[in-house]
Specification:
The chain has about 170 residues and is mostly helical. The protein contains four helices and no strands. Helix 1 packs across helix 2 and helix 1 packs parallel to helix 3. The protein is elongated.
Length: about 170
């Protein structure tokens, strides 16, 4: 039976024995580091360090992602320990749920305050705009009233002039 031939990259085909073995190890390391760099935000130095420590690129990526080994639950020796363990789990779950709900409510409250502030700000801007428009309208009305008075005074003055001009002609 002939062993399955290994397909080597062209740059490794001319090597034999220990040189080939070292080159394959080096190629594996280069590929492993490239894999780690693609899957994480590690620098090349950190990737090398973690690969040396864990010896497996998949373990390095899992460590980066925060996956840890599943800890096996210790076997309870007595029913009493089992009962208290279940009570503790229940209480912990309730506390987690309470804390999450409290945090959600706090976020809602902050968001509601933000919305109310924005609405108040918008309302104040609208009121300010309305006041400015009223002031502008009042000024315009005063100006028109003043122009009408001036026009009326000019007409009265003209009429007086015309009367005075007509009076000396009549005597």
């Amino acid at each position: 039976m002939n062993p399955t031939p290994i397909h080597l990259p062209p740059h490794l085909q001319h090597l034999k024995g220990e040189e080939l073995h070292a080159a394959i190890k080096q190629e594996y390391r280069v590929q492993a580091i490239a894999f780690i760099l693609r899957q994480t935000e590690y620098t090349e130095d950190v990737a090398n360090e973690r690969l040396d420590a864990l010896k497996d690129p998949v373990k390095v990526v899992k460590e980066y992602l925060g996956e840890s080994k599943v800890k096996s639950q210790p076997v309870c020796n007595s029913k009493n320990k089992m009962k208290y363990g279940e009570i503790r789990k229940f209480m912990d779950a309730g506390a987690r749920q309470y804390n999450m709900q409290k945090e959600i409510n706090e976020q809602r409250r902050k968001y509601q305050e933000y919305i109310e502030q924005q609405q108040q700000k918008h309302l104040e801007q609208q009121q300010q705009k309305h006041l400015e428009e009223q002031e502008q309208q009042e000024q315009q009305e005063q100006q028109e009233h003043q122009e009408q008075q001036e026009h009326q005074e000019q007409q009265e003055h003209q009429e007086q002039q015309e009367q005075q001009d007509q009076e000396p002609a009549n005597p």
